[in-house]
């Protein structure tokens, strides 16, 4: 069986940057998981003594708090600063952007629509910046019963599929005087998605590696599943079932933006050792 | 044969307003045709002595110039004012709006894309307001070779089909950081189009009445033709061919925004007299 990695996959700029920041700040703690990959977080804890707290109130004056790639709500960031916590911001710059847009557009009088997952930390953070509130939607149906202003600003979770975003834009534009559409889906997401689309069209079996709560990994799996019916989302090599590869000729592999290379390599090695012999 | 008018058709707010302005300004001249309907223009000339000049330089100080519903280029308007011509502005307010948007967005640093017909007077006028220039397109293909900025402002000719406008928006949004989509297609256009879509689905034969160079009439015909293969665009009853109605049971009728009721009535009467007996 031929094994091939997608042309683009894995760690993005924002994740690499955040890990570098964490490694440079030994004996700190992140507020919430730095990235959506528990294995990499365990590595940071073991090798760099970077802890993890799920409560921003646990940080005291002088503590060092690393802000996760997904960002945090505006008021919590302010509280940390007010409490003299030493804040080290590892928010991905591509997430800071929609936060800023929400604040500016809200204060300029636009109704803010955020396309994304209301329960995802990135979106909780982004939404908190809309001074006069924002509505989070996942599809045009969510917009049907809303009473909105004539002027709308639209932003997207950085890890979403552009086709789904366009459905929301296409619903709003004919119904409003002005829709400012901000393309806040990040390039790495876009490139990883394009690459998985390409390889899944020719693969017999597709393995998508990434955290189960990683939004961008879930989108990669959704695209892969559209083109290759034998698509599997795994966190690491322990989730592999070698029965998946029986009689298959071409195995495509991709990984989410928070999946470290060493996990990807473990998966490839495991498949090669157990299937390709 | 049953004859039925579309639920919405004919004269829009801007045309009614312009005709009222012209009627209130006897012995004036319009610069270019006030509306795209030569019969109505002939009526204004005969009954209200409202002339027509195709050259703005023909107006002298003290002359009264009525500005057509479609608007005129910014520099020509300025020239008329500089030359002390008495300017009476009958530009449709729904056309003034995209003019203003072009100027504001151009000065705010956006690249301006206008969806419409470059040769149409409305678009010549709208484009002239983009201080740093604008590009006029009719479809996504026209955008392929352009080098554009990251921030785009998009406006539409008031009389275009919203579906075609969305194709242009859908091309631009994934390729740019921000696209401000202004929905400048006017409501009357939208309502007339919806109504023609509805009636043409059930009609055996469709008659669309309006000037041959009327943009909105051409769009109505295009929609009608999508649903009813026996669709005909006529200027008045003299263009009718009664053979069109042979063995037909349901004749639908619509008319462009610049088609006066008296022409529509003449068409209906002619069909009734010549076919329904």
Write the layout of secondary structure elements.
The structure is a homodimer of 277-residue chains.
Chain A: E1 2-5, H1 13-23, E2 29-31, H2 38-48, E3 51-53, E4 64-67, H3 74-82, E5 86-89, H4 93-107, E6 111-115, H5 121-128, E7 134-137, E8 151-156, H6 162-172, E9 178-182, H7 187-202, E10 205-209, H8 215-227, E11 231-234, E12 250-255, H9 261-274
Parallel strand pairs in A: 1-12, 2-3, 2-4, 4-5, 6-7, 6-8, 8-9, 10-11, 10-12
Description:
The structure is a homodimer of 277-residue chains. With 277 residues, the first copy, chain A, is an alpha/beta fold. Chain A has three domains: 2-9 and 187-274, Cobalt-precorrin-4 Transmethylase, domain 1, CATH 3.40.1010; 13-92, Rossmann fold, CATH 3.40.50.11270; 94-181, 3-Layer(aba) Sandwich (Cobalt-precorrin-4 Transmethylase, domain 1). Helix content of chain A is 39%, strand content 19%. Chain A is built from nine helices and twelve strands. Chain A has helices at residues 13-23, 38-48, 74-82, 93-107, 121-128, 162-172, 187-202, 215-227, 261-274; strands at 2-5, 29-31, 51-53, 64-67, 86-89, 111-115, 134-137, 151-156, 178-182, 205-209, 231-234, 250-255. A four-stranded parallel beta sheet of chain A has the order 1-12-10-11, with helices on both faces. Chain A has a four-stranded parallel beta sheet with strand order 3-2-4-5, with helices on one face. In chain A, strand 2 (29-31), helix 2 and strand 3 form a beta-alpha-beta unit. In chain A, helix 4 (93-107) packs parallel to helix 5 and helix 7 (187-202) packs parallel to helix 8. The longest helix of chain A is centred in the C-terminal third of the chain and has 16 residues, at 187-202. The radius of gyration of chain A is 20 Å and the shape is flat. The N and C termini of chain A lie close together (9 Å). The model of chain A has no long low-confidence stretch (mean pLDDT 96). Chain A binds chain B through residues 162, 165-166, 169-170, 173-183, and chain B through 162, 166, 169-170, 173-183. Strand 9 of chain A pairs antiparallel with strand 9 of chain B, so a sheet runs across the interface.
């Amino acid at each position: 069986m031929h094994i091939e990695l997608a042309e683009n996959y894995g760690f993005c700029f924002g994740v690499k940057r955040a890990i570098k920041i964490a490694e440079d700040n030994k004996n700190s703690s992140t507020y919430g998981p730095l990235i959506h990959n528990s294995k990499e977080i365990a590595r940071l804890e073991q090798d760099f003594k970077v802890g993890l707290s799920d409560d921003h109130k646990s940080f005291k004056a002088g503590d060092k708090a690393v802000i996760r790639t997904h960002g945090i709500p505006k008021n919590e960031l302010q509280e940390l600063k007010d409490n003299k916590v030493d804040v080290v911001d590892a928010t991905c710059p591509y997430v800071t952007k929609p936060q800023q847009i929400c604040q500016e557009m809200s204060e300029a009088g636009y109704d803010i629509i955020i396309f994304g997952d209301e329960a995802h930390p990135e979106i909780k953070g982004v939404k908190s910046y809309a001074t006069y509130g924002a509505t989070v939607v996942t599809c045009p149906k969510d917009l049907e019963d809303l009473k909105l202003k004539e002027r709308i600003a639209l932003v997207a979770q950085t890890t979403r599929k552009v086709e789904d975003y366009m459905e929301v834009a296409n619903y709003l534009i004919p119904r409003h005087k002005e829709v400012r559409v901000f393309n806040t889906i990040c390039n790495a997401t876009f490139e990883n998605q394009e690459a998985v689309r390409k390889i899944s069209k020719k693969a017999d079996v597709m393995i998508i590696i990434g955290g189960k709560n990683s939004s961008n990994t879930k989108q990669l799996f959704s695209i892969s599943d559209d083109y290759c019916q034998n698509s599997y989302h795994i966190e690491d090599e322990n989730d592999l079932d070698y029965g998946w590869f029986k009689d298959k000729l071409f195995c495509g592999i991709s990984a989410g933006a928070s999946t470290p290379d060493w996990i990807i390599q473990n998966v490839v090695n495991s498949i090669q050792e157990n299937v390709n012999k």
